[in-house]
Each structure stands twice: as C-alpha cells, then as structure tokens.
Amino acid sequence: MRTDMEKYFSGEKLWGDDFSPSQIEEWFASEAEGYFNLTQAGNYSYGYHALNMRHGYSLLPKNIRFNRVLGVGSAYGDELEPVINRSDSITILEPSDGFQSTMIKGVPVSYEKPVPSGIAPFASNSFDLITCFGVIHHIPNVSTVINEFYRILNPEGYLILREPVISMGDWRKPRAGLTKNERGIPSNFLRTAILKAGFSIISERNCMFSLMSRFRYFVSGAVYNNSILTALDHFISSLPLWSTTYHPRNALQKLRPTAVFYVVQKPA
Predict the structure, then answer these.
(1) Residues 6+ apart with CB under 8 A from 181
(2) Where in the sequence is the domain holding 214, given as residue range(s)?
C-alpha cells in the first residue's frame, strides 16, 4: 500500500506545491537566508558562467535588446553579466538581506523582495528577459511562481530557467550542503507547469551529469565555468542512457544528469 509520501518521492507530485498558506509562510521564513548562510560559510563565488552561456544566453536572439531584465534569486547579480550591455534596467528579486549589489559591470541594480504567496511585486508585461537559475526548487509553490513569470514577461519575452530534477535526498532530514527545504523538481512536473502557464519551449536540455563534479580536482576554478568541461557535460547528459527516477535509491539510478535547462518564450 502506498504511503502519502510515496507520491512525492515518485515524482508524481511536487512536495510543497499543494501546501496551505501557513505552511508556505513557514517554509519561506526558514529558506530566506538559507542559501546566503551556506555560501558565505564556503566563501561565495559564482560557478556557472559557462553552463548558463551554453544552454541559455547563447540561444537568445543576438540582435535584440532586453530593456528590462529581472534576475530571480540572483544574489549579487553575477549571472546577469552576459546581458548587461544589452539592458537598460536590471532588477533582482532576492529574499536575502545578505546579497546586495549596487552595480553590475557599471550598470545600476535595484532589488525587490519576494513574498511567500509567490505573487511577484511587478505589473503585468514588465520585463523582456527573466533569468532563474537554481532558485525555484527552494520555493514551495512552484506552479504559482511559474505562472507569475508568464504574467510579468512582455509578449515575446524570454525566460531562461535551470533547476535540479532529482529529489536531492530525503528533504525531511538534514542534508549536508543543502538548505532545510530545497528539493529538486520532477522533470515532468516542471515541463507541464511551463506549458500550462502558456510558454513556448525553445530549448530543453539535460545537464550537470552526476560525475562531472569530480573534475574539480583536475581544473582550476569551477567545473561549470570551464567551457570545455561544460561541452563534455552537454554531450554526456544528452545520451539516452540514463535513469529518469526522481528519487534515486541506488548507485545506478544516481548516474545521470541531475538538472534541466530551459529557454522559453511568452508568445506574442
């Protein structure tokens, strides 16, 4: 007989997406400074420039400006550097008081705080580009947040999104190097939420193969700041060989791409 939790560990449902308002507020309060506390303890540096370029920024049109750009959970704004010279306005939606910048490469940045409900503090049709890299798996009400991305994007605007698609272990227990509540988003759930919101999918790529982190012993700097290793990861992750189990329970199931990268567009 299936337990209530099995529907979440199987990936059939997403833990947190059906929480009550009080449960969401409790989650939000415990998670707001969680990532800041982890990264500061390990001396923060941004490690995904090559990954974001290969699967995200390089697939955007080369000949247009993104007048208003929103970085969701973008901390100091490092991830936005590739579009700084194509932007007139940068806004970062960030819960932590610890992550604050005034400028990115000479461009002023403004900050706004999210709220537990997931409703974005912006008017509809406000942004030309939204980036969201490894953020919404920290959030309970993922469906609401993706619908809000659609609402606040301009028609023909773009969202580039990267998220883990494995459970990241049993989130009911403390896990080293992870915040209290974060869990991956089942790939089918994420794809369905994107399509239900109304987005058109331009690109969907698996990435971040589970063994790639071992290369950190052989290169200087972060693995996903290295364009050659990122290309290798792309090749391995694209092979149709790997488990798609959401909550892997053995070594073979853990041998797989652990994340997905989307480039999507709001239709005109």
Answers:
(1) 16, 27, 30, 31, 34, 138, 140, 171
(2) 6-265
- Looking up tokens 């997931």, which residue turns up? 118
pLDDT, tens digit, for every residue of 64-111?
Answer: 999 999 999 999 999 999 999 999 899 999 998 888 888 888 888 999
CA distance 196 to 145: 12
The CA-atom distances, in angstroms, between 248 and each of 41, 100, 184, 194 are: 28, 36, 12, 24
The CATH number that applies at residue 87 is 3.40.50.150
Q: How far apart are CA 94 and CA 88, in angstroms?
A: 20
Query: What is the number of structural domains in the chain?
Result: 1
Q: With respect to residue 179, please indicate whether it lies within any of the assigned structural domains.
A: yes
Q: Cβ contacts of residue 2 below 8 Å, gap of 6+?
A: none
1 pLDDT above the threshold of 60: no
The yes-or-no verdict on residue 30 having pLDDT over 60 is yes
Bigger pLDDT: 102 vs 159: 159
Tokens matching residue 260: 């997905």
Q: Whole-prediction pTM value?
A: 0.93
C-beta neighbour count of 121 within 10 angstroms: 12
Tokens of 63: 């000949």
Enumerate the H helices of the chain as residue ranges: 6-9, 21-31, 34-41, 49-55, 142-152, 187-197, 227-237, 251-254
Q: Is residue 128 part of a domain?
A: yes
Query: For residue 130, what are the β-bridge partners?
Result: 70, 159
DSSP state of 224: G
Residue 1 lies in a domain: no
Determine, yes or no, domain membership for 119.
Answer: yes
